[in-house]
Design a protein that fits this description.
three-stranded antiparallel sheet, two-stranded antiparallel ribbon, 5 strands, coiled coil
């Protein structure tokens, strides 16, 4: 039995979980996928490459940086979002260094934001 990736057009229950339009379901049995496509509840989408370690690495980096929906973005959007988040992080680190915040180079963006806010209150 082949596996197909689909994008939902309607509300579908899968494995006890409700999925909404726009959700992508990976590796669906082709018989089920064809039935959902025939009923116009879904459309077939391109499968993810099995061995795309660079894309997987980009997704992991994006998740660490707090990029929303990193698992669903393509390579170009991931690179753009990562660049934006890294620029924001660098700005926060520069500001934290000016405020003499200890450990600014190892903190996350959220930790830096909180530390900067605390330092500015003083």
């Amino acid at each position: 039995m082949n596996k197909v990736d689909i994008k939902l057009k309607g509300v579908v229950k899968n494995g006890g979980k409700w999925l909404k339009p726009g959700d992508i379901v990976r590796k669906v049995d082709d018989e089920i996928a064809l039935d959902l496509i025939a009923k116009e509840y879904a459309e077939e989408v391109e499968p993810l490459p099995e061995d795309d370690t660079e894309l997987q690495a980009l997704r992991e980096r994006a998740k660490v940086l707090g990029v929303p929906q990193a698992g669903r973005l393509g390579e170009a959007k991931l690179k753009e979002a990562i660049a934006e988040k890294e620029a924001e992080l660098q700005e926060l680190r520069t500001k934290a260094a000016k405020l003499d915040i200890e450990g600014f180079d190892t903190k996350t963006a959220e930790e830096l934001t909180a530390a900067i806010a605390e330092a500015e209150k003083k």
